[in-house]
Amino acid sequence: MKLKKWVRIGLIVAMIVPLTACGTSTSRKNAASSRPKPTKVVKTPIEDTQFMMGTVVTLRIYNKGKDNVLAGAFKLLKTEAKEITVNQKGSEIDKINAAAGKKPVAVSKDIYPMIKAAYYYSKNSDESFDLAIGPITSLWHIDFPMPRCPLNKKLIRTLSW
């Protein structure tokens, strides 16, 4: 019985292998010409560091001649940060938090995948990332002009929630 199984597998492989080589030389040439040309990689990256979203963000670009991309990347991050912050009234995350347990909130196409990824990492990071830490960090008033150390009773009350 095992021999018949291996014979069938061998026949299937024997039929598939020749098919993978099928194709015209023209289609191969077109496929090769449609590939983007590789960009030269540099040993020392173009780099910038900025403080945003309550943390230090460093971006590095290793592609030669892509200096202009760095400013655009930070601009995009700043735009997204305005929508994902919990500290700005009217941000998409603020709207979600305000409606929590009451009604659904429509979000932009970028926000839902971010929340889904954050939820995944919150569940699968062995507690090194916690999506639900917002109420605790907001007690410190981080990323505001006058950060402060909260009272223990406020921390305990918030943690017990």
UniProtKB/TrEMBL annotation:
Residues 1-23 form the signal peptide. Its EC number is 2.7.1.180. Keywords: FAD, Flavoprotein, Magnesium, Metal-binding, Signal, Transferase. InterPro entries: ApbE, ApbE-like_sf. Gene3D superfamilies: ApbE-like domains (3.10.520.10). It is an enzyme of class 2 (transferase). PANTHER family: FAD:PROTEIN FMN TRANSFERASE, THIAMINE BIOSYNTHESIS LIPOPROTEIN APBE. This is FAD:protein FMN transferase. It comes from Lactiplantibacillus plantarum subsp. plantarum.
